[in-house]
Amino acid sequence: MDSVVLIYKGIYILAIFGISLLIATYSTYFERKIAAFIQDRVGPNRAGPMGLLQPLADAGKLFFKEEFIPANANKTLFILGPGIAMLVAAMTSAVIPFGDTLILGETSFDLIAIDVNIGILYIFAVVSLGVYGLMIGGWASNNKFSLLGAIRAASQNISYELAMGLSLIAVLMLSGSLSLKVIAEQQAGFNWNIWYQPLGFLIFLICAFAETNRTPFDLPESEAELIGGYHTEYSSMKLGMYLFAEYINIFVVSAVMATLYFGAYNFPFMENLRNAFDDPVLGNNVVTILGVGVMFAKIFAFIFFFMWVRWTLPRFRYDQLMKLGWNILIPLAILNILLTGGGILLYDYFTQG
Asked: Rounded to whole angstroms, how far apart are CA atoms 166 and 336?
């Protein structure tokens, strides 16, 4: 039985990795299509029907472009930088529950790669390493624009990680667990955390834009000021790995937001649907499969929101970005913790006497 579960875990991990790469690949296509729609253009329409093969054409172009390493660059670190960024991005989805439990024969399979009781802590620990990929790549390029972009990325990520972590404390106070699986299970049906933590979600959402270097927080790679920021000197698949890492991070942070605040794979009346089947195993599996679809629908909705904001809002100045993080979001996150603690105490007082 243990060997069956081990084989399943290996297949599941490979499947999640493949799905992450596929979503990252086609996010470039849909971003260009959404930008074209907003700007009243057509967008990619040459490679394949409706341009659906455009991401494959872009990937082929990146694979076959000439490799270029600046003469004065630190070659080892120059290669290591995008590798770290890509590796860290691919590791973060391991603790996210994409569904409930499938029952096949006498074995139950959880739709989560690694169910640890410190899932949120794991994600923060891994994501915090991602900035090293940007810093190393910017510094190793021996280019002042790349270095400035790397410094911006490091200071921005550190600043907004604080507010993001503080916004999560309120959710952890409600759930009493660091496990994403437990947090998802507690939001069964329509009992989603967004109803209890609207301010915490807003803070987390703003910080998610900053952590993924997306507009209006794309100061580390702002073309008007820094040419391309920390990846100015990169070409071929090294540049592709930085771009892929960004889109994988968008996918992962969308999955985290869906799990923490929007019920993950839970949807209204799921228990009624589960009990509508005479065979409890069949009912469980049908609800689980529907839950996976609901989870990915929520993720795609957040990804669309990321893209819509990029082509709608202008970029902040750097002083505005830092002021928002330190002077506004962190105090608001602390206030949210106090309000949540007060609400829990009042609830316990009136319900338990």
From this structure: 9
236-261 and 198-211 helices, crossing angle to 10°: 180
pTM of the entire predicted model: 0.93
Q: Where are the domains of the chain?
A: 2-352
DSSP H stretches of helix in the chain: 2-38, 54-64, 75-91, 119-140, 144-175, 180-185, 198-211, 223-226, 236-261, 270-275, 280-310, 318-323, 330-352
Q: What length does the chain have?
A: 353
Scanning the structure block, which residue is given the tokens 């039985």?
1
- Two tokens at 280? 């409890």
Q: Beta partners for 109?
A: 102
Which of 144, 96, 89, 101 is closest to 260 using CA atoms?
96
Beta bridge partners of 107: 104
**Tokens (6 digits) for 24:** 């990252």
**Other CB atoms within 10 Å distance of the CB of residue 194:** 14
Q: Measured between alpha carbons, how far is 89 from 290 in angstroms, rounded to an integer?
A: 27
Structure tokens at 26: 């086609």
Please tell me what DSSP assigns to residue 342: H
Report the distance separating Cα 185 and Cα 270, nearest Å: 12
The answer for 108, left when phi > 0, alpha when psi is -120 to 50, beta otherwise, is beta
The answer to whether residues 45 and 51 touch, using CB atoms and an 8 Å cutoff, is yes
pLDDT tens string 178-216: 999 999 999 988 899 999 999 999 999 999 999 998 888
